């Protein structure tokens, strides 16, 4: 399949959010990545439901909601109601991951699990068949603008091998430090959804930066 690009609005100008959403609408981006941080699971706080609803009002592309929060089960329906099309929970926050994934699917959202850089791909072996997507964190979650962790390539290869048997249609999303320099190699090893915050929003021509990621 062709790979998908999901600009992360964590790097947008929050005082001009409508303008930045419209930029994404008018670009070759496929999804809009929405980072929710609670100051507990990760050391940073981003934004909550009113902002997600406001983004949804203007977005013409699906909202890819990434929950970096403890006990995400408490908030799945609220994020669906705010406009989430896909919901990603962290493996590290879900003791009953199978139940959580079923709950996301019952809401009618795509269901995904994220793993931190230190969490092995093998921990997802028994849930892989139930997932639409796995998000491999290529930085430690919490902040935009960090350096890409090279071990990510190895994890993508391992996940592609595992999913070939259990879930060949699995989407593999990469989040953190993705740019025009590393996207080609990430595609080669088997990833197919790319979050990009800084590399898009720090660019003088953001639409062109998205286009460059779409056609590397
Ligand atoms: C990090 C977030 C990312 C972040 C990526 O915790 O999950 O989605 O916005 O930002 P960049 O592309 O700047 O690394
Ligand atoms: Zn994210």
From TrEMBL:
The keyword Isomerase applies. Its cofactor is Mn(2+); a divalent metal cation; Co(2+); Fe(2+). One of its GO terms (molecular function) is D-ribulose-phosphate 3-epimerase activity. Gene3D superfamilies: Aldolase class I (3.20.20.70). Pathway: Carbohydrate degradation. Substrate binds at residues 8, 66, 142-145, 175-177, 197-198. Keywords: Carbohydrate metabolism, Cobalt, Isomerase, Manganese, Metal-binding, Zinc. InterPro entries: Aldolase_TIM, Ribul_P_3_epim, Ribul_P_3_epim-like, RibuloseP-bd_barrel. It catalyses: D-ribulose 5-phosphate = D-xylulose 5-phosphate. GO terms for cellular component: cytoplasm. Binds 1 divalent metal cation per subunit. The active site is at 35 (proton acceptor), 175 (proton donor). Its EC number is 5.1.3.1. The keyword Cell membrane does not apply. A divalent metal cation binds at residues 33, 35, 66, 175. It is an enzyme of class 5 (isomerase). Pfam families: Ribul_P_3_epim (PF00834). One of its GO terms (biological process) is pentose catabolic process. NCBIfam families: PRK05581.1-4 (NF004076), rpe (TIGR01163). Belongs to the ribulose-phosphate 3-epimerase family. Catalyzes the reversible epimerization of D-ribulose 5-phosphate to D-xylulose 5-phosphate. This is Ribulose-phosphate 3-epimerase. The gene is rpe.
């Amino acid at each position: 399949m062709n790979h998908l690009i999901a600009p992360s609005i964590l790097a947008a100008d929050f005082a001009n959010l409508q303008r930045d959403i419209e930029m994404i609408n008018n670009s070759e981006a496929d999804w809009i990545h929405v980072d929710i941080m609670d100051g507990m699971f990760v050391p940073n706080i981003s934004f909550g439901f009113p902002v997600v609803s406001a983004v949804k009002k203007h977005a013409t592309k699906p909202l890819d909601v990434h929950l970096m929060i403890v006990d995400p089960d408490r908030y799945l329906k609220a994020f669906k109601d705010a406009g989430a099309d896909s919901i990603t929970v962290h493996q590290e926050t879900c003791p009953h991951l199978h139940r959580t994934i079923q709950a996301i699917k019952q809401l009618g959202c795509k269901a995904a699990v994220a793993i931190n850089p230190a969490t092995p791909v093998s921990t997802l072996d028994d849930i892989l068949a139930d997932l639409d997507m796995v998000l491999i964190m290529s930085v430690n979650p919490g902040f935009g603008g960090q350096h890409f962790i090279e071990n990510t390539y190895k994890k993508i290869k391992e996940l592609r091998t595992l999913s070939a048997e259990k879930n060949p249609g699995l989407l593999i999303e990469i989040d953190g430090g993705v740019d025009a320099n590393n996207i080609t190699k990430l595609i080669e090893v088997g990833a197919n959804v790319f979050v990009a915050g800084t590399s898009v929003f720090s660019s003088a021509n953001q639409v062109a930066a998205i286009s460059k990621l779409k056609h590397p």
